[in-house]
Write a structure and sequence with these properties.
It holds the Pfam family Cu_bind_like. InterPro entries: Cupredoxin, Phytocyanin-like, Phytocyanin_dom. With 192 residues, this protein is an alpha/beta fold. The chain has four helices and eight strands; from the N terminus they run αβαβββαββββα. The strands form two sheets. The protein has a five-stranded mixed beta sheet. Helix 1 packs antiparallel against helix 4.
Length: 192
Amino acid sequence: MGKVIAFLVLMLVAPAAYAVNYTVGNSSGWNTGVDYNAWATGQTFTTADALVFNYGPTHAVHIVANAEDYFDCDDDMPRGIYRTSPTTIQLNVTGPWYFICPTDNHCEAGQRLTVNVTAAASIPPAASPPPSGGSVPPTPAGTPPGTPPSMATPPGTPPSMATPPPPPPSAAAGLKVGLISLVMAALTGLLV
């Protein structure tokens, strides 16, 4: 019985272990003289992840709204302003995120980062049967998909330019399924 309980606890806790906190710039932190886009190349960022910015008092982190503001180092209307290190930003929306340091031309000197965030891998819920009568209920009223958020969007939330197609399966998702299968097989062997 104890093994069954341990197995159930493991299965409930395991998905939380897949979120990653990325330290921007690794040991270099958020400073001038670092190629942040090279740092981000090859990394997969999902809505389960967070970016951790470590910086000194002469730096800041601003989330800007779009690529134009990013390339122009324009922080006139930032989505988020952070001035206390370390700053942890939860990547809670899919799509491109743009970060700059607006202090003393740091952005113009290359202290900026863009990442593309994809949906975190999850196990899809079981499909529910259609309601009696075979009709599908209408879509609830609300903001149509792809509509950019208003400026009332909370800081830290980048705009949605359009609804992107679902991302292709990532290696991390396959690794997660494989790891869970391996754990289940091992525990099944212990239970038998």
